[in-house]
Specification:
single chain; Heat Shock Protein 90; five-stranded mixed sheet; 10 helices; 64% helix
Length: 402
């Protein structure tokens, strides 16, 4: 008999054991093979017994065998419908033990009952049922040999013990595998939660940078222009400042609407990058100059977007903090990378005394650095009080820096 090798998909847990979706079809096939084997063995054993015994001896033995078969079939149906109670197994084991003791020809059917007990019972109860079967089978076969063949006595006992140990080990391994699977599933769930949390934080930081580089900077520049206009009102310069503030606020409104709709770069996607940089910078510094070095080529959308935002933020900072200053933007194309330098000749500042972020500002340099480093680039600022400032950026255009 080979069924022991295919029994491991079951975890003994009594009649209430629920199999995994993948294990259930396999277990159904194993049960079918075991039941078919039991039927074949019972027919063969009955034929053997009838041929070897007188008719007077056949009637009550065959009646006992038929009763055992009926109980076996009833239990098989209950087990398939998951309605089997442990007590029914012992209702089968008792007449079966009597049968193999008086008619050892039926002993081979004990293999099927052995597996039925292991799949329907768990723990000590399963060992009690299978042990009883093994002992009764051993005694029956030993009696069949006339009490002269010790192998008939020890064989079923040793076979039952080995099968029990093997099945116990298989069931233990399956339990460990299920526990590990549950732990992995729990860990994956925790990882998914962590990834969602990290994604939420990253998205908040990204939106904060976008708002800082568009809405905040634009509003700040508009406020500066309106304050300048109020100081020179009603002179002609005030009118120019109001016109510039209106244009800046209209552009800022467009930026805000675009930010609401997927945070795209407003109105600059189809413009050559040098011109787009000038348009972004001129909102804050009308006299800004843009220079190019190297062979111009299309840039990845995220790199182009980052370059534009850095220019916007840097020029807004120059407008707010550098005083009357001239600015120059230098865009350079390198193999596998693009560089950006934003220079102004303003008052400069002490890098060691950058204010922490607050409601009044302090996000500019940090937002630019975060934006660049998120794309694997390098960001640096050089400034000395009274000597101007340089914002330098290098971004990879092929995934890695050259």
């Amino acid at each position: 008999m080979t069924p022991p090798a295919t029994a491991p998909p079951v975890i003994s847990g009594g009649p209430e054991t629920v199999l995994d979706g993948a294990a259930a079809p396999s277990m159904a096939r194993i049960d079918a093979v075991v039941h078919l084997g039991f039927a074949v063995l019972m027919v063969a054993s009955a034929v053997r017994y009838v041929m070897r015994h007188r008719p007077a001896e056949n009637l009550w033995v065959l009646a006992l065998a038929a009763a055992a078969c009926l109980i076996y079939g009833f239990i098989a149906v209950l087990k398939r419908r998951r309605r089997l109670r442990p007590g029914w197994i012992f209702v089968l084991v008792a007449p079966w033990c009597a049968l193999v003791l008086v008619a050892p020809s039926f002993a081979w059917g004990s293999f099927a009952l052995f597996f039925l007990c292991r799949t329907a019972l768990a723990g000590a109860v399963a060992h009690l049922a299978t042990g009883t079967l093994a002992v009764a089978t051993a005694l029956g076969l030993f009696r069949l040999s006339g009490g002269s063949d010790i192998a008939m006595l020890l064989g079923p006992l040793a076979t039952g013990a080995m099968l029990a140990l093997i099945l116990d080990r298989m069931e233990h391994d399956v339990r460990v595998q299920r526990r590990l699977h549950a732990e992995v599933s729990a860990a994956q769930g925790q990882l998914a939660v962590s990834e969602r949390r990290a994604g939420t934080i990253a998205e908040r930081e990204r939106v904060a940078r976008e708002i800082h580089d568009t809405v905040t900077q634009g509003l700040a520049s508009g406020v500066l222009l309106l304050e300048a206009a109020s100081r020179s009102w009603p002179g002609p310069r005030a009118r120019d400042d109001v016109i510039k503030a209106g244009a800046l606020l209209r552009q800022n409104l467009a930026d805000t609407r675009s930010l609401v709709h997927d945070l795209a770069t407003p109105g600059l996607d189809g413009v050559p990058l040098p011109k787009a940089l000038w348009q972004a910078a001129a909102l804050h510094l009308p006299q800004v100059r843009v220079q190019e070095t190297g062979q111009e080529r299309p840039l990845p959308a995220d790199v182009r977007h980052a370059v534009l935002r850095v220019v916007q933020s840097a020029c807004a900072n120059i407008k707010r903090h550098a005083g009357p200053a001239q600015a120059t933007i230098t865009l350079g194309y390198l193999p596998g990378a693009v560089t950006l330098d934003v220079y102004d000749d303003g008052v400069g500042f002490d890098l060691a005394r950058i204010d922490p972020p607050s409601e009044s500002g302090g996000y500019g340099i940090r937002a630019m650095r975060a934006r660049v480093e998120q794309l694997g680039g390098a960001f640096s600022v050089e400034s000395t009080p009274g000597e101007g400032t340089i914002v330098a950026v290098q971004l990879p255009t092929d995934g890695t820096l050259a």
